[in-house]
Amino acid sequence: MYEDISQHLKDMLKLKNSPVAVALSNDKPDLEMLDGRMRFCEMLGEVIQNNRSFCTVSENHSCDGGACTLGLRAMPESMRSGEFLYKRVGLFGSAMAARRFFNSNLRVEAGTTKFVSFSPLEDAEFTPDVIVIACSAGSGMRAIEASAYDAGIAAKGRMGPVCSTVVAAPYLSGNVIYTLGDAGGRKYAKLNDSDVLIGVPLEKMGPLLHGLEEMIHS
Q1: 3: buried, middle or exposed (CB in 10 Å: 19+, 13-18, 0-12)?
Q2: Which of 26, 49, 159, 175 has a 20 to 30 A CA-CA distance from 193?
Q3: In Å, what is the CA distance from 29 to each residue of 36, 139, 166, 190, 197?
């Protein structure tokens, strides 16, 4: 169903890996359930690196951050207070700084998602909400410029966890979002040091492809 879109993206952006289709739903798709537990970023990496397709529920997500960001369950108090990122992870110099960062990340409302599905875009048998592209900085620049070709509305850059920046943020805002990701997300998704990530809401993919085609032929 999305083979042509995937191939156009691969050709025009010189992608080494398939774009990833991600969907948040309350109805179970006709898709194999993931066996076991992983972090969201590991799940993303399974698709990018190994071309796997699967569906997940809250119990499959070993990282509270990813599961809560995608609306599968409520965020633990230790994360909301900043104590987890401050004391256990050591990512911030105070609980206050961690709390500020936490509150700056977009998240889908808790309990409003039952299933999160993943697939290489060309194999997707469900309608994706967001398409995630892992690419070089140069290809990312071309994609971001192309997304503004028709309307002149620039894509948004966000810093933060991969689950928020490339899925929750484009899902909630309707904007094309690009990010460098975060240390854990890059590690568990097995991204190359030169990779950037772009989250594209499905409704913005048509204009992005049109922009790429026009800019390539101009």
Answers
A1: exposed
A2: 175
A3: 18, 32, 21, 27, 26
User: Rg of the Cα trace of the chain?
Assistant: 17
Average pLDDT over residues 134-144: 97
What is the dihedral sign for C-alpha 28, 29, 33, 37? negative
**24 with 116: CB under 8 angstroms?**
yes
Going from the C-alpha of 18 to that of each of 149, 180, 183, 215, the distances in angstroms are: 23, 18, 22, 22
Walk across the sheet containing 54-56 and list its strands: 54-56, 115-120, 20-25, 130-136, 195-201, 177-179, 156-157
Q: How many residues does the chain have?
A: 218
Instruction: Count the neighbouring beta carbons within 10 Å of the beta carbon of residue 169.
Output: 25
Reply yes or no on whether the pLDDT at 167 is more than 80: yes
SS3 202: helix
- Percent of the chain scoring above 90 in pLDDT: 82
Of 29, 19, 72, 34, which is closest to residue 202 (Cα–Cα)?
Answer: 19
Does position 80 have pLDDT exceeding 80, yes or no? no
Each domain of the chain, given as residue ranges in start order, spans 3-217
- Over residues 39-57, mean pLDDT: 97
Nearest alpha carbon to residue 169 among 121, 75, 104: 104
